[in-house]
Design a protein that fits this description.
Layout: H1 3-20, E1 26-30, E2 40-45, E3 49-53, E4 58-60, E5 65-66, H2 70-73, E6 81-86, H3 92-99, H4 106-109, E7 113-118, H5 126-140, E8 145-147, H6 156-168, E9 173-178, E10 186-194, E11 198-209, E12 218-224, E13 230-233, H7 239-243, E14 251-256, E15 269-273
Parallel strand pairs: 1-10, 7-8
Antiparallel strand pairs: 2-9, 3-4, 3-6, 4-5, 6-7, 9-10, 11-12, 11-14, 12-13, 14-15
């Protein structure tokens, strides 16, 4: 390969890597039984699309660029932000369809809120960063840019009470962030999530034909977990999904309540295609 052509190839590869490199973010663990709730700041878990602001552009958690309208981002500061692009409770699919368009639709983007919950690489502990987020959002003064509300509780009983209220109102769950924690990345004990059901991902490997009222429709999805174990998902499937099931090879998020003695999810229920 001529040197000049090779140089162009290398430059293009570096550009693409820089463009699509996934940002290093803090990820939550499932809340274990032994946690002192009073040490954490509590917030609602917003069922949106995770988005990272690098001071110039918005990026998906996986690294692709979010093509947001200029008016949506022009007031954002030249510092890193982390949050969710959110429409409302139970509206994940709608939010995802809006923010993943290559050419943003201004009217649809008016429904999107950037729910900011972290300052990546920010100084101070989390409680201090939360206070700084509120100041930033007040300065931005744009309805679509929102500081996530954080508060304290003193017991697991209060935590369960708030979880029940959020879920009853259509919310997904709660987040607990260690108030004294410096900023870290990766899956860490400083951040927990609490939901009424656990969720996980598996790959579609087959379609089981329906019977009875589901004749000529999908009866169940045959799934493979990351460790190779196989199981079926037959509940949580809408008529739309039963008529147009996810293709073989699609990654699906499902909800479940614990594991069987064989390590398979109990009461697995279809949730959504993982974007």
């Amino acid at each position: 390969m001529p040197y000049r052509l090779f140089s162009i190839f290398v430059a293009l590869a570096c550009f693409l890597k820089a463009t699509y490199a996934a940002p290093a973010l803090l990820l939550a663990k499932e809340l274990p039984p032994q946690v002192n709730v009073a040490d954490y700041l509590i917030s609602e878990k917003y069922d949106g699309v995770r988005a990272y602001w690098d001071g110039r552009k918005l990026w998906f958690r996986g690294g692709g660029e979010v093509h947001a309208p200029t008016w949506f981002t022009e007031r954002l500061p030249q510092q890193n932000l982390d949050g969710e692009l959110w429409v409302g409770r139970g509206q994940f699919e709608l939010a995802s369809s809006i923010v993943r368009q290559k050419i943003p639709n201004d009217t649809e983007w008016r429904r999107i809120h950037y729910m900011i919950f972290e300052l990546p690489n920010g100084a101070g502990d989390f409680a201090q960063r939360v206070a700084k987020i509120q100041i930033l959002v007040n300065t931005i003064n744009q309805p679509q840019i929102v500081a996530v509300k954080h508060y304290r509780l003193s017991s697991r009983h209060e935590l369960q009470r708030d979880l029940d209220q959020i879920v009853e109102q259509g919310g997904e769950g709660l987040m607990l962030h260690l108030a004294s924690a410096p900023y870290v990345t990766g899956r860490s004990d400083v951040l927990y999530k609490l939901k009424p059901m656990a969720d996980a991902e598996a790959t579609v490997i087959g379609h089981v034909a329906g019977q009875g009222k589901y004749q000529n429709m999908l009866g169940a999805l045959r799934m493979r977990m990351s460790d190779g174990r196989v199981f079926n998902i037959g509940t949580g499937l809408s008529d739309e999904v039963r008529h147009h099931p996810p293709a073989i090879g699609t990654m699906v998020t499902y909800r479940y309540r614990g594991l069987t003695k064989n390590g398979l999810p109990r009461f697995a229920s279809y949730w959504r295609i993982r974007q």
